Amino acid sequence: MSHTFQVDLRGLVDLLSHHLYSSPKVYLRELLQNGVDAITARRALDPGAPAAVRLLPGDGGLRVEDTGIGLTEAEVHDLLATIGRSSKRDGLESARADFLGQFGIGLLACFVVAEEIRVVSRSARDPQAPPVEWRARGDGSYTVRTLPEEARTEPGTTVHLAARPGAGEWLEAGRVAELARHFGSLLRYDVRVGGERITERPVWDRPHTGPDARRAAFAEHCAETFGFAPLDAIELDVPLAGVRGVAYVLPEAVSPAQRGAHRVHLKGMLLTEHADGLLPEWAFFVRCVLDTDGLHPTASREGLYEDETLAAVREALGERIRGWLSELAAGSPELLGRFLSVHHLGVKSLARHDPEMLRAMLPWLPFETTDGRVSLEEFARRHPVVHYTRTTEEFHQVAAIAAAQGIGVVNGGYTYDAELVELLPGARPGTAVAELDTDTVTAHLDPVDGGEELALAPFLAAARTALDRLDCDVALRAYQPAAVPALYLDDRDARHERSRAAAEAASDELWAGVLGSLRESRPRARLVLNHLNPLVRRMARVDDARLAGTAVEALYGQALLMSRRPLRPADSALLNRTFLELLDWAVAPAPQTPPTDRPSGDAR
Ligand SMILES: Nc1ncnc2c1ncn2[C@@H]1O[C@H](COP(=O)(O)OP(=O)(O)OP(=O)(O)O)[C@@H](O)[C@H]1O
């Protein structure tokens, strides 16, 4: 024997209100939607039929009247009283696409706020059919009866809601007007709360006296909708999915991980304020408001259904925003400059995957370089080879020295920057790009005269002994700026080892010898003492081998600090020890005083 499922309406309403809908306020959206769909259905039969929805709050309840298609008694039983039944799924796909509803559960949302729903309706399809009344209660019971002719003379439907205990606030006049405006301001029919019209033309459809007035109208709309003054407004129009709208460019940077909170209307009805997946991920610098005929809602009607249409719209909107950027690059450098100063990270992430974009944006993208913050194009014009470092530490380690030797360096340590610089030759033919290694820097430093270096041999030997256990070699060169006493170059990995060999081949005999000596051993860090630095020169004349050793260790520590590398525990200990030792030397009594008078507790 077969049975029919029984539905516990109270349980179903609880399920909807707690798990499908985000708030009781959606009841109003469902009512508006039913009114609008009913008018659409009637107008398909009679294009000249009136099109109005009236919301009339009062007496602890709400009345919603529409001039739509109405229902006969049989339809009331079939459609209103059968959960999951919808008239909007019948017929052709194209006709279905005209409606907002489709699931046949919308009316249930009213039970979240109402104890009783009373519907009085008269069919436009069957003018002979009398008005009909349907009364339904939250416990699942309902009654249907026909009414006398004069109970409703015109086609259409009126829905009466009587508030549930505790839910009265949702039906109050102020709240109803606020919700109607929130959900329905862009609906295409005349919707009023009391006598007040709440529907308006979308800002992008309004006529304006000129471009300036249009811009001002968009700025005002953005301030009202999102609460910020946009850098610019990008008009959106994708006929394929009936999308019209506007993307507002944020005046402040946002994290690329932060997804956009876009407002999407479906045939005028607000679907969501947090649409996800509407734009490509890189377009995180805009917030959109748009209305669409062609995108599909999820059953909760609070999000977009991820399908091919959404994918196509996403691509088309991305294309439009990309076009806006190209237009700026071509014609509005001042605005582009302002835009990039805020959103360069976003544009850089976009340009990485998009050579066309890279070419368009290249003259404008700012990078940190040894010439200051300049665009890559400007930098490439000034320097025959665009050198870059892969990390910010490397940049800080060599920037000042490299700049003084005339080597231009881009800091590739920031997000995407190294990758972008590597793409430069593709976007700007003829540009030479090379990763900066420590040997390129050393190869640019002048060697010290052979005789002078020989004279300093004892000092250099003491220095090498002092730093040997730190896996660091010592070299002497003459370089600018003279104020820098020593340069710490980390030569640890194989990449450096390869370029070392090249530098060795190109350098003079003495330096080639130093470099060559490194070849056999594992690559080591190197402290390059600056022979132009007065302190280094004075140190080289110190007779006391121990003091000379401590001084070199201190220089090593200082150069390490300048390179902004993280200090190993051994390095911190060395800094601490050398500081105290030098302090001790500095405050030591004059040489004629006997050593026993020295302060006690010294670290030596
Ligand atoms: N104001 C109205 N005028 C005429 N018919 C209506 C009205 N309200 C509801 N109906 C009929 O009742 C059916 C069920 O309505 P309900 O709101 O539950 O679902 P729906 O609008 O079809 O779909 P959804 O669950 O997606 O909103 C509708 O398909 C429609 O035929």
Automatic annotation (TrEMBL):
<feature type="binding site">
    <location>
        <position position="30"/>
    </location>
    <ligand>
        <name>ATP</name>
    </ligand>
</feature>
<feature type="binding site">
    <location>
        <position position="157"/>
    </location>
    <ligand>
        <name>ATP</name>
    </ligand>
</feature>
<dbReference type="GO" id="GO:0016887">
    <property type="term" value="F:ATP hydrolysis activity"/>
</dbReference>
<dbReference type="InterPro" id="IPR001404">
    <property type="entry name" value="Hsp90_fam"/>
</dbReference>
<keyword id="KW-0067">ATP-binding</keyword>
<dbReference type="GO" id="GO:0005524">
    <property type="term" value="F:ATP binding"/>
</dbReference>
<protein>
    <submittedName>
        <fullName>Molecular chaperone HtpG</fullName>
    </submittedName>
</protein>
<dbReference type="GO" id="GO:0051082">
    <property type="term" value="F:unfolded protein binding"/>
</dbReference>
<dbReference type="Pfam" id="PF13589">
    <property type="entry name" value="HATPase_c_3"/>
</dbReference>
<feature type="binding site">
    <location>
        <position position="66"/>
    </location>
    <ligand>
        <name>ATP</name>
    </ligand>
</feature>
<dbReference type="InterPro" id="IPR036890">
    <property type="entry name" value="HATPase_C_sf"/>
</dbReference>
<keyword id="KW-0143">Chaperone</keyword>
<dbReference type="InterPro" id="IPR020575">
    <property type="entry name" value="Hsp90_N"/>
</dbReference>
<comment type="similarity">
    <text>Belongs to the heat shock protein 90 family.</text>
</comment>
<feature type="binding site">
    <location>
        <position position="34"/>
    </location>
    <ligand>
        <name>ATP</name>
    </ligand>
</feature>
<dbReference type="GO" id="GO:0140662">
    <property type="term" value="F:ATP-dependent protein folding chaperone"/>
</dbReference>
<keyword id="KW-0547">Nucleotide-binding</keyword>
<dbReference type="InterPro" id="IPR020568">
    <property type="entry name" value="Ribosomal_Su5_D2-typ_SF"/>
</dbReference>
